[in-house]
């Protein structure tokens, strides 16, 4: 686990070192990649996240999805089931709060909830990735738990990782619970991996 922690620290420092101008360019390039993505074009219900700790800014993408009449959902820490996520419909007027990690999320409202299995696409943040689709998250396992049905049956929303190019590493030391991704989108390219 110490190797994973060292890798997290290294890559988080890399992405935090990006300048505001570099972050803006990366966000525009991410948007361009996503605008050309056939599955995103066909999707109606898309889960994203708000950038934190140097993550790639998803706001331009969210604004574009809204302009295309697509519904955007954000993750919320499950209030009754620790270690799990819920996904709430997110609009420009959604009341927001900060979760226990200091990350903005919509205020819990059962009426805005959508089961993650009925999403079309679930965009996941990540700390690092390698050229075979392995993803290293922050260590809480939230997205790995969310994607267990995808891993075992290829059921549920298509998981797409989103990352800066500088988050690619040579290899991720994997654990049994890690869920590799079928695709990762960076500002410069789409990484597509063979069906698992």
From TrEMBL:
Origin organism lineage: Bacteria, Pseudomonadati, Pseudomonadota, Gammaproteobacteria, Aeromonadales
Residues making up the signal peptide according to the UniProt record: none
Organism of provenance: Aeromonas bivalvium
Pfam family, one: 5-FTHF_cyc-lig
Name the UniProt record assigns to this protein: 5-formyltetrahydrofolate cyclo-ligase
Family designation: Belongs to the 5-formyltetrahydrofolate cyclo-ligase family.
Keyword line: ATP-binding, Ligase, Magnesium, Metal-binding, Nucleotide-binding
InterPro entries in the record: FTHF_cligase (IPR002698), FTHF_cligase-like_sf (IPR024185), NagB/RpiA_transferase-like (IPR037171)
Keyword Magnesium on entry: yes
